[in-house]
Amino acid sequence: MTAAQGVLLRPITMGxxxxxxxxxxxxxxxxxxPAAAFPKGCYPSEEEGLKTFRCSNAQLTExxxxxxxxxxxxxxxxxxxxxxxxxxxxxxxxxLELDLSHNAIARIETGAFQGLAEHLHSLxxxxxxxxxxxxxxxxxxxxxxxxxxxxxxxxxxxxxxIRAVELAADSSGGIVCDSSTQEEHVGKAFLxxxxxxxFCNVYKxxxxxxxxxxxxxxxAMVISYLVYYVRQNQxxxxxxxxxxxxxxxxxxxxxxxxxxxxxx
Length: 264
Description:
Oligomer: single chain
Strand content: 5-15%
Distance between the termini: 140 Å
Number of strands: 11
């Protein structure tokens, strides 16, 4: 090969190398998850051999989508999430820990934790805005739950919830009555209150009394109507008899027989 031919081949070779490098970069890029799939402030990592997804203090207003479905630990703390919809974590079958503390969660739909019962062992809902939650929202969940530092309404519904879940260690003292069906319990730890008060039994007694009062009211109305009806008929019969007395004797006797048969 002459020197002139070598000079001509050199640009061609460089072009082929650059083209191959470009194709390789495209191939690698298609295999990696796009960074834009995760909300700003969220990122995957690995901690103690567990796949972790962190969205702490990311200004989220809802549970993010496209969380890797092999995530073991999910941190959504210090955001502004207001409620948890049904199936919010349905695509995370391997989740072990879920931190939702320090949000604005005021409502949890039944089925929000559906699909997590088998593996989840830690659920943190502390420092939110929970006032009342149905026990059905935690159905079949075996995780230890932190419910402290929420503005709870202490009533039968909360009592049923506490009995349905396993509370995280050292978290029970943080479940305090912000309001209550009985005013003297406000500001007290709920577990301390239910040691001496059965909210559900009190509710049942109140309901039974209300039903008895309602039934007595209806019964009194029926009796009053019957008494009124009988008295009204007696008054009409008395007026009719007085009218008959003022009639001539023959006509009066025929009218009296008709009136007596009617009254009987």
